TrEMBL record:
Domain of life of the organism encoding this protein: Eukaryota
Keyword terms: Amino-acid transport, Membrane, Transmembrane, Transmembrane helix, Transport
Gene Ontology terms describing biological process: amino acid transmembrane transport
Full protein name: Amino acid transporter AVT1I-like
Gene: LOC110784216
Stored Pfam families: Aa_trans (PF01490)
Cellular component per GO, a single term: membrane
The organism's taxonomic lineage, starting at the top: Eukaryota, Viridiplantae, Streptophyta, Embryophyta, Tracheophyta
Annotated localization: Membrane
Length: 415
């Protein structure tokens, strides 16, 4: 098999490599870390109970530390610019292929999750929506919104210039803060209050909580790109520390506020619990609708670049790129319509792939590249993190597949 046919899941660093300022990189990093995960934080906390906040902090720390290890791997060889190349430097061609496949499937399913999220939120705003086609074909509200959003997103997906996309994605950070502010406002001014005591711990829900927390910190595959484009690379650790600290404060605040407001009645996204008639909730719901739009094209870039690299003859052809990217979006629409349960899909992605891509792979690659003494404290600590990530993978995958099967059976019974 030729090299060009190999998976190369990466975001190409922009042509002005090494020109991005500290502040711009910080915004990009924040946007990568603080994602739609903020909407499922209260549900995750309600699943696991108050003590599961310890897990949130542990996963945040582990993912942040794995980010720093990613930086160290890249420092070891200045030629490394992408996530897949770290895998290659550590484990050869086999490492490159495995890392690429994990990254590709992870991002592909995250993007599909965004479409499902958009369908849910818009259906919540316009419950009457239905599309009637000739021949008596009816397309339900959620499904029709998934299609409309996909068509609206296509032009942003056709842009393959990350400099332009960086400005689009900066709105993601502001939208997360705005959503948090709006939810707090609903609690204070709209008669919802913060009266739910909640449970201390719910063992059954711990795997779900763990997977959703993990999904919310799955930005590691984007870090090599941010690092490559940064002017003063030695400041990248600061970007990671500030980024993860801000994300964790946002996530923890949202989880606590949401759990106090709605307790065990929380749905997979807090926007579905908000009363639809108040201004604060409308702001939260509309902003939640904008948030994935700001990320979709950025996260699509590595998936599209990989798919294009399978056809080296046409890789630089603009028309070919547009066709490939359109097909990718279309296939995601099909997946989004056939698996419309956002919570279960996200916890499955979180369990199976996010932990592998954001924690396990950077740790294993670093151990291989650094050749640290097995007796060193750091070596043992990294091994502990690897064990934690494998635990998330095993437990979370089992429970989320079980809940997807259960939901599918329930839907069939209802029909």
């Amino acid at each position: 098999m030729s090299n060009s046919m190999e998976l190369e899941a990466n975001i190409e660093p922009s042509s002005d490599e090494g020109n991005t300022s500290f502040l711009k990189t910080l915004f990009n990093g924040l946007n990568a870390v603080i994602g739609v995960g903020i909407l499922s934080m209260p549900y995750a906390l309600a699943s696991g109970g108050w003590l599961s906040l310890i897990l949130l902090l542990a996963i945040s720390g582990a993912a942040g530390y794995a980010g720093i290890l990613t930086k160290r791997c890249m420092d070891a060889n200045p030629k490394i610019t992408t996530y897949a190349e770290i895998g290659e430097f550590a484990f050869g061609k086999f490492g490159k292929t495995i890392v690429s496949i994990v990254l590709y499937v992870d991002l592909y399913l995250v993007l599909t999750g965004y479409l499902i999220l958009e369908g849910d939120n818009l259906h919540n705003l316009f419950p009457e929506m239905n599309i009637h086609l000739h021949g008596g074909i009816n397309i339900g509200g959620k499904q029709s919104f998934v299609m409309i959003i996909a068509v609206a997103l296509l032009p942003t997906v056709w842009i393959d210039n990350l400099n332009i996309l960086a400005y689009v994605s900066a709105t993601g950070v502001l939208s997360a803060v705005l959503i948090l502010g709006s939810v707090v406002s609903v609690g204070i001014f709209d008669g919802v209050g913060f009266h739910n005591k909640g449970e201390l711990i719910n063992w059954k829900g711990i795997p779900t909580a763990m997977s959703l927390f993990m999904f919310s910190y799955s930005a590691n595959p984007v870090f090599p790109t941010l690092y490559s484009s940064m002017q003063k690379k030695h400041h990248f650790s600061k970007v990671l520390i500030i980024g993860f600290a801000c994300a964790t404060i946002c996530y923890t605040a949202m989880a606590i506020v949401g759990y106090l407001m709605f307790g065990s009645t929380l749905q997979s996204q807090i926007t579905l619990n908000l009363p639809t008639n108040t201004i604060s909730s409308k702001i939260a719901i509309y902003t939640a609708w904008i948030s994935p739009l700001s990320k979709y094209a950025l996260m699509m870039e590595p998936v599209a670049a990989t798919t294009e690299s399978w056809f080296p003859k046409y890789q630089k052809n603009k028309g070919f790129k547009i066709i490939i990217r359109t097909i990718l979006v279309a296939t995601q629409v099909v997946v989004a319509i056939t698996i419309p349960f956002f919570g279960s899909l996200m916890s499955l992605v979180g369990a199976l792939l996010s932990a592998t891509a954001s924690i396990t792979i950077p740790c294993l690659c670093y151990l291989k590249i650094s050749k640290k003494s097995r007796r060193s404290i750091e070596h043992m600590f990294i091994m502990l993190i690897v064990v934690l990530s494998l635990g998330i993978v095993a437990l979370g995958t089992y429970t989320s597949i079980r809940s997807i099967i259960k939901e599918t059976i329930n839907r069939q019974h209802r029909h």
